[in-house]
Amino acid sequence: MAGVLGSALARRQRWPNQRELSRKIVHIGTGPVLPLAWVFHVPASIAVPCAVVVTLIAFINHRWNLLPAVEDVGRNSYGTVAYGFAICLLLILFWAENPAAACAGVLVMAFGDGLAGLIGRAVRSPNWTLLDQRKSIVGTTTMAITSAVVLLALVLITQSQLTPLRVLAVCTLAVGLEQLSLWGIDNLTIPLGVALSWTWMTA
């Protein structure tokens, strides 16, 4: 996490006008933390308190803007706090019995939404505005493809019974939730929606 934050701060100093870049580095870089914790069998008794502490730090940073590289994106967004809160909920709800569901939710959020934000802004394409948030064909397509890749990789790793049709259903849900991103609330709804649907469809 320290390396991810350091990289974000360095990018912010190098390209101060690209506010979204440093924030997305943190956004994407946070994703692999849960799979690593799963691989190393980190128990919920350690994972949950750590997630709570990080979320509190994110809230403090959001309130006082101590690290602009993480928060200052020029719009009213609670995304980083919602992201931390989502990870806390995923750990509490799924870590003991279904860590794959927690990882699915976080990785789709980290890579799908993160890359959609970066690529969607970098590549011009037809776009629209929904709840004062700009969305584009390229960004939405990136979200869909990345989500599918993440979920299929998890299916292979976990030998899950999630069929391609069900993977498509989860991807569709994730893309739909990403469209409703007012105040950064998608950072909460996407991980929870993906994790819940993964649990339901693999039960």
Structure, explained:
The N and C termini lie far apart (33 Å). The chain has one domain. The protein has a two-stranded antiparallel ribbon. α8 packs across α9. The model has no long low-confidence stretch (mean pLDDT 88). The protein is built from 10 helices and 2 strands. With 203 residues, the chain is mainly alpha-helical.
Short description:
By secondary structure, the protein is mostly helical. The chain contains 10 helices and 2 strands. Helix 2 runs antiparallel to helix 7 (99-122) and helix 8 crosses helix 9.
Q: Which spans of ≥5 residues are poorly predicted at pLDDT below 50?
A: none
Structural class: mainly alpha
Rg, Å, rounded: 16 Å
Largest sheet: spatial strand order: 1-2
Q: Total domains, how many?
A: 1
The total strand number stands at 2
Give me the strand/helix succession.
HHHHHHHEEHHH
The coarse silhouette is globular
Largest beta-sheet characterization = 2 strands, antiparallel
